[in-house]
Design goal:
By secondary structure, this protein is mainly alpha-helical. The chain contains 22 helices and six strands. Helix 13 crosses helix 14. The longest helix is centred in the middle third of the chain and has 34 residues.
Length: 536
Amino acid sequence: MQCFHIFSTALCAYFVFAFRRTLLAPAFVPMLFAFALYSQGLIADHGQREHLFTLGFMPFFFLRGLRYLKQEEKEIDRRLAILTGALAGLLMSLKPHFALIWLFAELGFLSYAGKFSLRPAGRRLPYLELLALLVPPLVYLVCFFSLPKQALRVFFDLALTVYQYGSLWGAKSFMHSLCGTYYFTEPFNQFLVGAFFFVILRRRNPWLSGAFMLALAGLFNYLIGGHAWTYRLLPMALYSQLLLALECGTVFNIVYERFKERVPGIALLAALGLFIYSFNYTGEYFTMNERDYEVAKEEGFDLSKIGFSGFNPRVDFDDTFYTIVENTGAHDTVVYMGSGIRPGYPAQLQAGRPPGSVFLYGYPLTMISQARLTKPSLSAVFDRLEADTIERFGKDIAKNKVNLVLVQECPIAELIKPYNFVDKYLSAYSRVCEVDGAQVYKFTGGKVDLTRYSTAARREIVLKVLSGVWSEEQAASEKQVPLPVVKDWVKRGRKALDDGLTDRVVDDKGALLRKMEELYRENWRLNEEIGKLRAP
């Protein structure tokens, strides 16, 4: 992801540098700097579709601005135009309303230029970047309508109907979406400040019209979604910052043009100031990361438990992640029945546990419930679809022998209660705990209240089995615990001992590295022998 961000930033910087004579290049330095910093502060929404799109669209924005404002001092490379357009089109295909951001940007440049810039003068075909932009969505549509008729029927007759009437489940008011928390308020305030200065500076820099419309498109897309979901806020948050940065750069350019003749070396001073600031910020960033790494080593999560090396700060993971890791093995399946994709499915991905159902989470159930309230005349259709969805969840759990099932208490548990889901499909599962608002059920072969067994009680059983005092069967009989539960405790206890007592030079990875070193030395010795034999 960082490499993609670097590539996108470099491409934007290339356009600014290559056309610096007509582009008011000094005005774009703060904008490029703000764009380069964009990914560094993203944690929860890093890698979302909005994040990918905003990164990939910016080079296309620069290219279209050059076309509209006729600031191409030389011919733009055809391959670069195709690459820029194809990249924007590919990422625009992730969500259909991303196309609105492109259209708003075009309108922004149009408002300044006075006419569309769709094709070169004297040519019939549009610019190459526009043709390349449209290719990925067209391929997407062709592939979509090539799906089997039954799949298309399900999509148009059921999925779209449920989405139309049920997508506003959990919707928030206009004011909450903008001012509910500081996370929403900050980018909205930045947009308002940027809009205010846009009115003042719009005639000073023609690029401000396009930048303002980008921010406006981000705000529009966020509000029409009806949900205060942070990832939907990303385009408005970035474009508002870029608008402010471009306005700061415009003011700087005005000052620079006025004093460049009076103050010798002002360009060098400005570049030196930016370098010092960038160096200081980068130093603080690396110092912070180094400090976080040291904390992670002392208080962090050992990533070897999920097949990686190193440590990670524990706060980066939800409690659901630790519950999944401690109660499942590397190849065990997990089902998360929750109204939102987080915390269940991200934790499942981080733990590397495969899904045990065709449904990654339970949002379809909440949408069906909302659709039934919104459109009572279709209640029979939604009732049947709800029953089929719940039954599919249950059949997947049985078919795939799911090891861990997480059921959100509200609203999912209430929605599945009339169908006796727990008694019908989780009769061989025992409730382990409650985590992040969900009840956790683990396969034990029968019902047992695992919460009655403290860590000390479990440790006593495991130590007696490992020391040979009891067999696993005797421990299960003596403590009245199902045998699969005892086996699981013993397995986890033995692994914990192995992890705690292993030296890196003699564990599996260390042994492999040692064997590679031995083979390397043997290969070196044989090469020396061959060299001696070949010597005259």
